[in-house]
Recover the amino acids of this structure.
């Protein structure tokens, strides 16, 4: 097990014992195989070979997600059944990482002339904060070019920017109907599966139940309403999805606001509910919100209305909007456009974010990686842009390259994570040839 465990962190093992042990185990293998190695603070390390002014980096990670429940085999005892290997990490990222490592080992053992330095860099915190890789770039020179074997083939040469904006509202409201609270969403980068509101108003439970029954019969959601001491409690359920593709989910919170907006709320409650129901609802590409933008290479800006917090007693209520944006958009313009909306008293941005990352498809490295893929698989190579983030973005000329092949069943982060053993061999062959082509 090598998931981050802060409860067991020490000075010597800053992310807990698992990530450290996985890193030292990897470095011991690399040393056994004759590579020069370095361990930086038990956070990140590398195996090195070759000489040259330029450095080719391969960026993998040995941390992983916790196993969770529902496994048919021991997640930490790799088991091969019907050509598939089952264990936590076999597809994210220990399996692809070792396939790339063996690709490098093949190049080394063939004694081929290396015209660049090659560093196989292993992070231990990819699944959370990239602590290890951040440390690497603080203390080591940035490699010239490279790839991360932590996604899919043919390759990923573009990753959208990522920023969360917060719309701020006051809570005080009094009218026939009065909103006590409105809450939905667990994470900014997830579509809220459900949302709940407490409110009071001149309506009976029976009437409210009838209106809710009408609403859910017309919409793709379910809901319940209860009453306690004159306060109604309504919950709407939709469907969760990853926040980088909000159009794949059914946002329980925006549907709840749509349902509530038929009642006569006033003041801050009306402001809060109206902006959700009239503007944010189903506005996955921020057209109504006024931020729609499509880059011909990187595709459209997406917006996930991810976390909703409203309390009548609070002066600080928010809606968190997670944006994935292509080149051509910047965070200042996102903030400025949101400030034009009527309703919010203020707009702020999250401290951490990613800017868009794009390596042109005619970059010689991208051309080489695609041509090796085509030669080895007989399939057509093409560029791919995603809304998520991989280590590829750490290098100016960095991409993600493998190891999922087209048609692959993606079991990353899930119970019974597996990889086809044959795919690891195919990937290792691609990596070996790609490394050689990039350093010859
Ligand atoms: Zn990964
Ligand atoms: Zn992962």
């Amino acid at each position: 097990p090598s998931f981050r465990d802060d409860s067991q962190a020490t000075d010597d093992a800053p992310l807990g014992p698992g990530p450290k042990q996985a890193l030292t185990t990897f470095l011991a293998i690399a040393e056994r195989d004759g590579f020069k190695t370095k361990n930086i603070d038990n956070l990140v390390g590398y195996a090195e070979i070759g000489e040259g002014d330029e450095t080719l980096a391969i960026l993998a990670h040995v941390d992983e997600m916790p196993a969770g429940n529902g496994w048919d085999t021991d997640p930490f005892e790799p088991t091969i059944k019907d050509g598939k290997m089952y264990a936590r990490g076999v597809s994210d990222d220990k399996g692809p990482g070792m396939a790339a490592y063996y690709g490098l080992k093949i190049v080394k053992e063939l004694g081929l002339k290396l015209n660049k330095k090659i560093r196989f860099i292993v992070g231990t915190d990819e699944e959370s904060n990239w602590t290890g890789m951040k440390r690497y770039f603080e203390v080591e020179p940035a490699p010239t070019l490279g790839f991360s074997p932590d996604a899919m083939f043919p390759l990923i040469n573009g990753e959208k920017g990522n920023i969360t904006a917060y719309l701020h509202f006051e809570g005080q409201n009094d009218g026939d109907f009065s909103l006590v609270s409105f809450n939905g969403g667990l994470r900014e980068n997830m579509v809220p599966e459900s949302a709940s509101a407490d409110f009071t108003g001149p309506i009976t439970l029976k009437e409210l139940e009838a209106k809710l029954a009408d609403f859910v019969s017309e919409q793709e959601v379910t809901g319940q309403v209860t009453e306690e001491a004159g306060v109604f409690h309504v919950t709407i359920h939709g469907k969760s999805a990853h926040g980088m593709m909000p159009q794949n989910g059914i946002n329980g919170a925006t549907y709840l606001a749509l349902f509530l907006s038929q009642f006569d709320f006033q003041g801050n409650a009306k402001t809060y509910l109206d902006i959700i129901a009239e503007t944010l609802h189903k506005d996955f590409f921020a057209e109504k919100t006024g931020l729609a933008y499509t880059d011909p290479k990187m595709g459209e800006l997406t917006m996930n209305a991810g976390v909703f917090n409203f309390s009548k007693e609070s002066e600080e209520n928010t809606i968190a909007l997670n944006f994935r944006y292509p080149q051509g958009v910047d965070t200042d313009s996102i903030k400025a456009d949101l400030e034009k909306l009527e309703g919010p008293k203020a707009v702020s941005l999250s401290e951490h974010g990613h800017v868009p990352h794009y390596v042109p498809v005619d970059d010689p490295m991208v051309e080489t990686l695609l041509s090796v893929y085509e030669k080895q698989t007989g399939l057509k190579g093409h560029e791919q842009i995603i809304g998520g983030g991989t280590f590829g973005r750490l290098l100016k000329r960095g991409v993600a390259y493998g190891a999922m092949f087209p048609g692959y069943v993606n079991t990353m982060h899930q119970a019974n994570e597996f990889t086809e053993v044959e795919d690891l061999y195919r990937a290792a062959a691609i990596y070996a040839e790609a490394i050689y082509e990039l350093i010859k």
About this structure: The two ends are 37 Å apart (CA to CA). Residues 65, 92, 127, 412-413 surround zinc ion (ligand 2) (CB under 6 Å).
